[in-house]
Amino acid sequence: MGELDNTVNVVMLLLVLGTGIAATACAIAAAxxxxxxxxxxxxxxxxxxxxxxxxxxxxxxxxxxxxxxVLLL
Length: 73
Description:
- By secondary structure, this protein is mainly α.
- The chain has two helices and no strands.
- About 90% of the residues lie in helices and about 0% in strands.
């Protein structure tokens, strides 16, 4: 049972880190799209909001996965 616990921990760690890194990348993309010059402001606002929605979804997924991980311990 010890090897299975170690495998579950590694998989959950990779999932939590992966979703956290993806959320960070989405947040950076949202800032870049919103702040870049020379583009229609309303188009940048819409695209920035889409990136922020993706950031929120991935962030809450990372938090939810962390709670699932705690339950698996």
